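tool=predict chain=A
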Amino acid sequence: MRILVVLPAYNEEQALPHLLDSLIENLSEERKDYSIIVVNDGSRDRTGEVADSYAKRHPILVLHNDSNKGLAETMRRGLMEAVSRAGPKDIIVTMDADNTHPAGLTLRMIRSIREGNDVVIASRYRDGSQVRGVSLERRVLSRVASWLFRIFFPIRGVLDYTCGYRAYRADLTKSLIDQYGREFISERGFSCMIDILLRLRERDVVFAEVPLVLRYDLKPGRTKMRVLATILDTLKLLIRRRLTVSKAKPVRADDRQSS
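tool=predict ok
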């Protein structure tokens, strides 16, 4: 079994070394067979150079977007690359490259997959989770998104729909890409993580969550999330998917007879 970690990175020259050092330390101590895929999304700083220097010494593949494509396209490229390299029993992990997601939690998520779960999410809404250094508006956005999607698109075992720190069975991810092609992610921006989750919701998937200690107080620099744009994209996604579900709802036999 191999672990493939996908890291979309944009202007993370300060944070990336800390994260890579922690990932390498944790995965090596556990004697995990691993590969890290860094997708440099047209960074304007030295993110690409930093990643390339690590790749000379560690099992790291660096992909460079020729310009800034955004999170959705960068995540798509990273996941498709991971699937092309993964075996059926491998595990794919996605996480932010800004050092806010603790690398040590990867081991617990991997263990949860091996215990029988298909998808494991690092959740801000489980007992034991903590959030440090996040603005009030972002906390409200995350809470409202969680609340809305739990009402309209409930998924057993899921409270956190937006966190990008996840572990997936590789064969499940491959089957998703085989079915939808590049459209397995059809949304732009940060709502792409909800998009993936809703695709998986249509399948017989076992979800689990582990508590996340989110450390935005350790993040160098400002957040790249445009809060208002993310709110609008999230609401549009919810409405589109809700309308699609309503249109696809089968007509009951008694409804046909009464018409």
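Residues 2-248 form a domain with the Spore Coat Polysaccharide Biosynthesis Protein SpsA; Chain A fold (CATH 3.90.550.10). The beta strands are 2-9, 33-40, 60-64, 91-94, 119-123, 130-132, 166-169, 207-211, 213-215.
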